[in-house]
Write a structure and sequence with these properties.
Bacteriocin immunity protein, mainly alpha, single chain, globular
């Protein structure tokens, strides 16, 4: 079962990597802002915020036109793997 801590830790690792190489990018800002929201959210608010991130993050990244390195891609994919769990219905202990 996935828990909030796992999602937040994965996103925190992604933010750290993005800040190393893309500190001024819109993508880094968006992921960082979402991370702060997720840390403060629980239950349906958490899953809703996470689903909004899943819906918008790729658009922000494409618009930003940044190229992720290998580590960033790995973390991005790991984070987006949580999307397959579904919107507000996934078995997460929040």
């Amino acid at each position: 079962m996935v828990n909030k801590t796992e999602v937040v830790n994965t996103m925190q690792a992604l933010v750290s990597e993005l800040q190393k190489n893309h500190a001024q990018s819109e993508t880094t800002s968006y992921v960082s802002e979402t991370l702060q929201k997720l840390k403060k959210s629980d239950g349906v608010a958490f899953t809703g915020s996470l689903q909004l991130f899943f819906n918008q993050a790729n658009i922000v990244k494409i618009s930003d036109n940044i190229q992720l390195n290998k580590e960033e891609k790995t973390l991005w994919r790991k984070l987006f793997a949580f999307n397959s769990l579904g919107n507000n219905l996934w078995g997460a202990s929040l």
